[in-house]
C-alpha cells in the first residue's frame, strides 16, 4: 500500500489543554506508517462559536486552512470533532455555492491564497478506518486490549449532521447507531460497551453559559458507561475528553452520584494496542488516573 | 419492460411503552411479535397493536401524510414521524428488536400520548406570528420578493410535531430553555421582511432560556422529519443578535466574541485567555479544576502558546472580512 500522507490540522486543544492527544497522534501515525504534514499556518476553526458571531469571517478562515492543505496536495486530517464539523461544513458550503466561493476567494486573494476545493477533509478516526483499514490494523496489534470493557463516546460533531459528515466518510455512519469507534475498539482487541449515552452530547459547548446543563450531560455519559461495566471510556474528540476527564466533580454533584472513569483519546487506545509506551501516549496527563497500564 | 415489485415480510419484536396515568403507578413495556411487511410504515404497526392486540393502546394520528405532526413518537430513541417512517428503514437502522416510546416518557399521559403543554407554552412565548401594522384597505398586495422569501430558509415548513423539541438534551435538563422548535418559529418571523417585532429577538436572547444555551449537538437537525434544520436557525438567531445590536454583554456573548480576539492575537485560540475574557472575575470558580489541570500539564501559560505561522495573513483577513462589530 502506498504510504498514507495527510495535512494535519491539529486544532487548538491538542497544542494546549490536551497535549497528550498530539503526542499520541504522532506516535500512532509513526507506528502505522502514516506521514502527517502539520499545517502550522492554520488558525482556529472558530469551534462553532465564532460562527455564531461572524459567519463570513469563519468561512474565510476555514477556507484559508483548507487552502493550505490544497497547497500540499493532501487530504486534511483533523483530530477534533468540532474542527472536523466546521471545516467540513465550510467545504460543503463553498463547493456547493460558486457565488459564496468567489466572495471568499476574493478575500483570500488579498493574502495570495485560493480555495479550490481539491482537498478532502477527514477525521483521523475515519482515516484509520477508511484509508488504512481495520484489518491491517488488527494485524499490527501487539498488545490486544482483551481484558478491557471499553465504552465508546462518539461526540456529536463526528456523527451529526449525518448528511454532511457522511460526505467525508467512505463508510456511512448512522448517528443513532454509530459503529466506527466500536469497530476500532474491536480491532484493538477490546470489548465494546453498549450504552445509551454513547452518541449523546457531553455538554462542552455550554460549559460556561449553562454549567448545570453541561454537568448533567457529562454526568449522564460517565454514569451510562459505568453502568455498562466499562473499565474506561474512549473518544475521538478532545473537547469531549476535556469534559469527561476534568469535570467529574461538577458532574457528580449535578447528577447526585459519584462518577469518574479514565477517558482515553482514540489515538491513545490505538497506541496501547500497537505497543506504544504510556509515556509516548501521554497517559500521565489525565485527571482521572489511568492506572491500568 | 415491467419491474416486479415484491413485498417482503420479516419478524420484528416490538417492546412498547405502556402507561395510563389514570390507572398505573409506573410505566411498563409490553412485547408484541409481528410479521412486518416492506410496505408498512411505523403508524401501521401502531394501528395493528390497537386493532389486533389491545384496543386500549393509545396514540395520536391524523393526516397520515406527514403534514399534521401528531403521530411523532420515538423508535429506539430516534424521534420519528410514524406516518412517514418506513418499517424497512427502521429494521435496517436498528435490527429486529424495536422499542416504541412516546416522544417524552416523562410527559406520557396514556401510552404514546404526551402532554405537549411545555412545547406549546414555549412556542407561544417567542411571539410566533407576524407583528406588522396592516392596512385594512390596501391599494395593492403586500408583496414579498422571492429573495426575501428565501431568507425564511424553509422555517415556515415546521409542522409543530415536537420531534426536535423532545430530542433536544438541553430541553430535557433545563425546563426554561425554549428549545429548537420555538427558535425555528422565532426565526421564521424574525427573518420576515414584513415583521416589526421589537421584543422577539430580545426574548430569545435571554439567559437560561434563549439561544445561547443551545448545546450544539445537532440532535434537532437529525430529528426533524421536514428537514428544517432547527440548529441552522439557532445559529442565524445568534448572528441576528449581533447584527441587530441586541447581543448583551454576558458570558455567552463574550465567549463568541472572544474567539475573534484570540484569533487576531495568536491565530490559534488562547484557551485560558478565552475563559478569562468570557467569565471576567467569575473565573475564580474554575481555579480548583485549573489547578488540577496545571499539575497534569494540561494548561499552557499565555507565553507558551504556539502562534500560527503567517499570523499577519490571519490578521489581515480578520480585518478585511469581519462583517460584525461588537
TrEMBL record, chain A:
Signal peptide (residue range): none
Keyword flag NAD: no
Keywords carried by this UniProt record: Oxidoreductase
UniProt GO molecular function: oxidoreductase activity
Occurrences of domain Cysteine-rich (ranges): 6-85, 151-245
InterPro entries, per database record: Cys_rich_dom, HdrB/HdrD_reductase
Recorded superkingdom: Bacteria
Pfam families per the UniProt record, alphabetical: CCG (PF02754)
Protein name: Heterodisulfide reductase subunit B
Natural source organism: Sulfurimonas sediminis
UniProtKB/TrEMBL annotation, chain B:
Biological or metabolic pathway of the protein: Carbohydrate metabolism; tricarboxylic acid cycle; fumarate from succinate (bacterial route): step 1/1
Cofactor note: Binds 1 [2Fe-2S] cluster. Binds 1 [4Fe-4S] cluster.
MF terms in GO: 2 iron, 2 sulfur cluster binding; 3 iron, 4 sulfur cluster binding; 4 iron, 4 sulfur cluster binding; electron transfer activity; metal ion binding; succinate dehydrogenase (quinone) activity
GO annotation terms (biological process): respiratory electron transport chain; tricarboxylic acid cycle
EC number: 1.3.5.1
Reactions it catalyzes: a menaquinone + succinate = a menaquinol + fumarate
Xref: CDD domains: fer2 (cd00207)
Highest taxon listed in the record's lineage: Bacteria
Keywords: 2Fe-2S, 3Fe-4S, 4Fe-4S, Electron transport, Iron, Iron-sulfur, Metal-binding, Oxidoreductase, Transport, Tricarboxylic acid cycle
InterPro entries: 2Fe-2S_ferredoxin-like_sf, 2Fe-2S_ferredoxin-type, 2Fe2S_fd_BS, 4Fe4S_Fe-S-bd, 4Fe4S_Fe_S_CS, Beta-grasp_dom_sf, Helical_ferredxn, SDH/FRD_Iron-Sulfur
Annotated ranges, domain 4Fe-4S ferredoxin-type: 148-178, 200-234
Cofactor(s) the protein needs: [2Fe-2S] cluster; [4Fe-4S] cluster; [3Fe-4S] cluster
Residue span(s) of domain 2Fe-2S ferredoxin-type: 10-106
Any Pfam family: Fer2_3
Stated family: Belongs to the succinate dehydrogenase/fumarate reductase iron-sulfur protein family.
NCBIfam families per the UniProt record, alphabetical: dhsB, PRK05950.1
Subunit and partners: Part of an enzyme complex containing three subunits: a flavoprotein (frdA), an iron-sulfur protein (frdB), and diheme cytochrome b (frdC).
Protein name listed in UniProt: Fumarate reductase iron-sulfur subunit
Species in which this protein is naturally found: Sulfurimonas sediminis
Source taxonomy: Bacteria, Pseudomonadati, Campylobacterota, Epsilonproteobacteria, Campylobacterales
Amino acid at each position: 500500500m502506498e504510504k498514507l500522507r495527510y495535512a494535519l490540522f491539529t486544532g487548538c486543544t491538542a497544542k494546549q489543554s490536551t497535549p497528550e492527544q498530539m503526542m499520541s497522534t504522532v506516535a500512532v501515525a509513526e507506528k502505522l506508517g502514516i506521514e502527517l504534514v502539520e499545517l502550522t499556518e492554520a488558525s482556529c476553526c472558530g469551534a462553532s462559536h465564532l460562527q455564531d458571531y461572524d459567519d463570513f469571517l469563519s468561512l474565510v478562515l476555514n477556507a484559508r486552512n483548507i487552502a493550505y492543505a490544497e497547497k500540499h496536495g493532501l487530504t486534511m486530517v483533523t483530530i477534533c470533532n468540532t474542527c472536523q464539523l466546521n471545516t467540513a461544513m465550510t467545504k460543503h458550503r463553498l463547493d456547493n455555492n460558486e457565488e459564496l466561493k468567489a466572495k471568499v476567494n476574493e478575500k483570500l486573494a488579498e493574502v495570495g491564497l485560493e480555495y479550490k476545493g481539491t482537498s478532502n477533509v477527514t477525521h483521523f478516526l475515519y482515516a484509520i478506518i477508511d484509508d488504512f483499514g481495520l484489518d491491517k490494523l488488527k494485524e499490527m496489534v501487539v498488545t490486544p486490549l482483551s481484558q478491557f470493557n471499553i465504552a465508546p463516546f462518539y461526540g456529536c460533531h463526528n456523527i451529526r449532521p449525518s448528511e454532511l459528515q457522511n460526505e467525508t466518510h467512505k463508510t456511512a455512519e448512522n448517528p443513532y447507531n454509530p459503529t466506527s469507534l466500536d469497530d476500532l475498539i474491536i480491532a484493538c482487541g477490546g470489548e465494546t460497551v453498549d450504552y445509551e449515552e454513547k452518541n449523546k452530547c457531553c455538554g462542552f459547548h455550554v460549559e460556561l453559559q449553562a454549567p448545570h446543563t453541561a454537568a448533567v450531560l457529562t454526568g449522564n455519559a460517565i454514569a451510562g458507561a459505568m453502568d455498562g461495566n466499562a473499565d474506561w471510556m474512549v473518544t475521538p474528540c478532545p473537547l469531549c475528553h476535556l469534559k469527561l476527564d476534568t469535570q467529574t466533580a461538577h458532574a457528580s454533584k449535578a447528577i447526585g452520584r459519584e462518577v469518574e472513569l479514565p477517558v482515553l483519546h482514540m489515538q491513545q487506545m490505538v497506541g496501547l494496542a500497537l505497543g506504544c509506551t504510556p509515556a509516548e501516549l501521554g497517559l500521565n496527563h489525565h485527571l482521572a488516573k489511568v492506572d491500568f497500564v | 419492460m415491467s419491474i416486479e415489485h415484491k413485498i417482503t415480510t420479516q419478524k420484528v419484536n416490538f417492546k412498547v411503552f405502556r402507561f395510563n396515568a389514570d390507572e398505573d403507578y409506573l410505566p411498563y413495556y409490553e412485547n408484541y411479535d409481528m410479521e412486518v411487511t416492506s410496505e408498512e410504515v411505523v403508524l401501521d404497526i401502531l394501528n395493528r397493536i390497537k386493532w389486533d392486540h389491545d384496543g386500549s393502546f393509545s396514540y395520536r394520528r391524523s393526516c397520515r401524510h406527514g403534514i399534521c405532526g401528531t403521530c411523532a413518537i420515538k423508535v429506539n430513541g430516534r424521534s420519528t414521524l410514524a406516518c412517514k417512517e418506513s418499517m424497512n428503514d427502521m429494521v435496517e437502522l436498528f435490527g429486529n428488536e424495536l422499542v416504541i416510546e412516546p416522544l417524552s416518557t416523562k410527559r406520557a399521559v396514556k401510552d404514546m400520548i404526551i402532554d405537549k403543554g411545555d412545547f406549546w407554552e414555549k412556542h407561544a412565548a417567542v411571539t410566533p406570528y407576524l407583528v406588522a401594522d396592516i392596512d385594512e384597505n390596501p391599494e395593492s398586495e403586500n408583496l414579498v420578493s422571492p429573495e426575501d422569501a428565501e431568507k425564511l430558509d424553509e422555517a415556515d415548513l415546521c409542522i409543530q410535531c415536537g420531534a426536535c423539541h423532545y430530542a433536544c438534551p438541553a430541553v430535557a435538563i433545563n425546563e426554561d430553555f425554549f428549545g429548537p422548535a420555538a427558535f425555528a418559529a422565532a426565526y421564521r418571523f424574525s427573518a420576515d421582511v414584513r415583521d416589526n417585532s421589537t421584543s422577539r429577538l430580545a426574548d430569545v436572547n435571554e439567559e437560561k432560556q434563549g439561544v445561547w444555551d443551545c448545546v450544539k449537538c445537532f440532535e434537532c437537525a437529525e430529528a426533524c422529519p421536514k428537514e428544517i434544520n432547527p440548529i441552522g436557525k439557532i445559529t442565524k438567531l445568534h448572528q441576528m443578535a449581533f447584527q441587530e445590536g441586541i447581543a448583551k454583554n454576558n458570558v455567552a456573548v463574550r465567549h463568541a466574541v472572544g474567539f475573534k480576539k484570540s484569533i487576531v492575537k495568536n491565530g490559534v485560540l488562547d484557551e485560558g485567555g478565552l475563559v478569562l475574557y468570557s467569565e471576567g472575575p467569575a473565573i475564580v470558580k474554575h481555579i480548583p479544576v485549573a489547578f488540577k489541570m496545571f499539575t497534569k500539564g494540561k494548561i499552557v501559560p499565555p507565553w507558551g502558546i504556539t502562534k500560527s505561522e503567517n499570523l499577519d495573513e490571519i490578521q489581515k483577513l480578520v480585518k478585511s472580512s469581519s462583517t460584525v462589530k461588537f
